[in-house]
Amino acid sequence: MMAGMVKPTMEDIARAAHVSVSTVSRALADHGGTAAGTKRLVHQVAVQLGYTPGDKGRAKTWHSGMVGLITTDLEGRPSLPVLIGAEDALGPMKHSILLANSRGDARLETSRIEQLMSRNIDGLLVVNKSVDPRSPIPRSLIGDTPVVYVYGPSRDPDDCSVTADSRQGAELAISHLIDRGRRRIAVIGGPEHARATSERMIGVKHAFAMHGLRPVAPPRFGSWDVSWGRKATELLLQDDMPFDGLYCLNDRIARGALETLMGHGLHVPDDVAVIGHDNWERQIVDAAVPLTTVDSDCERIGRVAAMALLDAIQGNPHHGMITVSGNLIQRASTSSTALPKKRHPRRRSTRWADGER
């Protein structure tokens, strides 16, 4: 390629060879599912345009300096912090991010990835809106372009995935309540079989065991919504099982629990200390009592994922799961260290006699 000429893209090759971008990607990666004649044509056009195969099976001998980031939910809790963290890591390394949003639609995801591939990205960050595992991106679509899965891990254990350490975060939450003098602690979770629920419950059980305690009542599982937080808390109060600490597995549940406790005349944190998980500002900033919560540190997850991707681009890929520890963000919902001296119950089911705690 002559000096000063614009570097060709896979889209240029596809247009000249009258094939799709994904076909170009497969052909340049020497993918076994591509016809031999098509491979020859694509390689011939690539050479003519100055886009030649490199060593170690790489489809190009130069780096574009661009990394793709595709998210299933641009407005979701992890996406923007992950993007900020990734930019912090990639910027000093002279890499820019091309952002795409699939909106959780599989067909749109394929289309967006093809568009990113046509820009000759050096690597791809795939961000999921939840920590539930997802299907890996087909190699037929991306060739040998390095991929790192972020927040929601790949189902392929050989892929590199960077996610939150949900177990450690839950241990922080329970230990914090115990450190605040709470001994009768209840737990409200999301969907029972969701990965976030199962991982956080492992941390819950471990923390209770470390302190020689047990939950005051069996954990309740439902949805991730504020409405479930209200309902589950109502059920706890109806059971007339006195509790002085409440760990909710996300902030929406905690927000609903907080509203219900206060609606029954209970003081937070004097009567019940409440803690959430995720540090989701939408649920925290205008709460009647600012919520203590566990922050999964999504910016750090983004930085770690970006550094792992840079390693892969340089020929040193990582494999398996990398977990990032979270942080406890203490606010008013757990700030009191004293046991309650005054209660204002509205009905018998919330009246806890002296000595019951």
UniProtKB/TrEMBL annotation:
The keyword Transcription regulation applies. It comes from the Bacteria. Keywords: DNA-binding, Transcription, Transcription regulation. InterPro entries: HTH_LacI (IPR000843), LacI/GalR-like_sensor (IPR046335), Lambda_DNA-bd_dom_sf (IPR010982), Peripla_BP_I (IPR028082). Residues 8-53 form the HTH lacI-type domain. Gene3D superfamilies: 3.40.50.2300, lambda repressor-like DNA-binding domains. GO terms for molecular function: DNA-binding transcription factor activity; transcription cis-regulatory region binding. PANTHER family: HTH-TYPE TRANSCRIPTIONAL REGULATOR GALS, LACI-RELATED TRANSCRIPTIONAL REPRESSOR. This is LacI family transcriptional regulator. It comes from Bifidobacterium primatium.
